[in-house]
Amino acid sequence: MRWLIISAITVMTVIACPVASSQPADPSTPPAPTGLGVRLLEIPVDLQDDPRAQTYIVDNLPPGTTITRKIDIQNNTGAYQSVDLYPGAATIRETGGWETEAVSEVNELTTWMSIDKTKLDMNAGEADPVTVTIAVPKDAPEGEQYGVVWAQIKGPDPGGSGAILVNRVGIRVYLSVGPGNGPPANFKIDKLTPRRNDAGIHEVVAEVTNTGGRAVDLGGDVTLTEGPGGLALGPKRATAVTVAPDKTAQVVFSLGTTLPAGPWTVTVALHSGLLHKTATATLTFPDSGVGESVSITEPQESSPLWTAVFVGAGIGALVVAALLGVTLFLRRRQAK
């Protein structure tokens, strides 16, 4: 196996050690991590600018291909921990949303995954890298599979009650099986709807369809302008929603209870990785319930999730993020 090392710009957060100081703490400084942590140390080179690939294991593999990814397990609980590591199954709900399965559940992807260390004995403040291997069988069906690499700790039995507290954190796995770069990701905003929920909160609902061949993790913001008296609001963010290929889901933006009915010029900007779409409509909020929807027919801004790259002799590429920097590694994928 050959390795080519190339300098690169840091794309992963560096974990900094606390330093004693007599100066007051800078309120802009992020707090030190707590609890059990897990982060990805490797991403495909062709996806190094994709925010999704910097957080999750995202790849497309032909049948008969094996890859590895390194992840970092961090014990920031302040105490010794025995950490269990294992792959878990996951699905995407029909109406949108990532859903993890019970520990006992398996899917095709979990049977292809293995971890070089299934248990870690970790002192407080310790970090330990592990390697995840995904070996796609030669007869694997084409399509996208979903899973999670879990790190789990168990608390003591409180007072012999038989109830044991389990905490776990994980990294999502989105694996597409097929030739070349796999099907491209894409989505479209179908319509925007104003509504007031049962608590009286004004909401803008974007109905979105995944028109590509890969799952999308939709996030974004909404901005209201040209309201009564020239009022403006936003941007306001939405909670991310995962949508499977060929499925439709809602992205909901909450705006509070004290908002004039309108009309408002509403602009919704959604993204998934490097894909970006924007839709604008004039909306008026109802006194209660659901208001009048506006279908989106104008062309929407878009950028592809991936750009074409030369794939030859089964060669793959990885970006490897070290604690104090990032190194690019080109690794030969081994077909089994």
Automatic annotation (TrEMBL):
Q: What is the lineage of its organism?
A: Bacteria, Bacillati, Actinomycetota, Actinomycetes, Mycobacteriales
Sorted alphabetically, the keyword list is: Membrane, Signal, Transmembrane, Transmembrane helix
Q: Which residues cross the membrane?
A: 305-330
Species the sequence originates in: Antrihabitans stalactiti
Name of this chain's protein: Peptidase
- Signal peptide: which range, if any? 1-22
Reading the lineage from the top rank, the first entry is Bacteria
